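Sequence, please.
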């Protein structure tokens, strides 16, 4: 099989991780979610904690006041190489490097935009009914319904702001992806099968 790149955008608690694992097994892809942060840290020389603090967030620099000094490299910091844009660039470089080494599936982090010129690339956005998302969030994070609803709203807003800023596209909009699908319609397993069939035809 030729190398294939799958990019997954997703609403919070829409089943993205579960579906992605199935697709990775189906197409022999390496899985990159938060793993890409460690690669970016290795490439840049910054601590992985810096990338975790900035993960899919815009305007996070103020959080640095709460970081310990070892999290930042003196050389990078004082040479003014540290900025949100530079961290995004390091992350983009890590995504491109991973993609160059074989079939991959990337979750979020603007990978669809970063790899837009790569051949055999498919970009998918997953949504789900709010009731299902609340239920998953409550179960996964052991929280009540109100807290789950607030968490979902905050996570979606943060992801949208990050994606829109760095890509110039609109997070979750059909024109930004090859396929947008509501995972609540078929359920997670059947949605994964549907996406796999779509990828083969694509």
């Amino acid at each position: 099989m030729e190398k294939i790149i799958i990019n997954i955008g997703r609403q919070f608690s829409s089943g993205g991780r579960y579906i992605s694992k199935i697709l990775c097994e189906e197409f022999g892809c390496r899985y990159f979610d938060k793993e890409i942060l460690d690669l970016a840290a290795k490439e840049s020389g910054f601590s992985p904690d810096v990338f975790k603090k900035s993960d899919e967030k815009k305007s996070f620099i103020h959080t640095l006041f709460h970081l310990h000094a070892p999290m930042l490299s003196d050389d990078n910091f004082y040479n003014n190489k540290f900025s949100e844009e530079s961290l995004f660039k390091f992350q983009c470089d890590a995504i491109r490097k991973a993609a160059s080494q074989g079939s991959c599936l990337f979750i979020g982090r603007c990978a669809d935009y970063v790899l837009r010129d790569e051949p055999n690339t498919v970009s998918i956005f997953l949504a789900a009914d709010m009731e299902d998302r609340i239920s998953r969030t409550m179960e996964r994070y052991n929280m009540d319904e109100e807290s789950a609803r607030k968490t979902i709203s905050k996570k979606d807003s943060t992801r949208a702001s990050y994606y829109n800023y760095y890509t110039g596209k609109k997070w979750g909009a059909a024109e930004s992806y090859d396929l947008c699908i509501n995972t609540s319609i078929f359920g997670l397993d059947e949605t994964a099968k549907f996406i796999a069939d779509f990828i083969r035809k694509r």
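The chain has ten helices and five strands.
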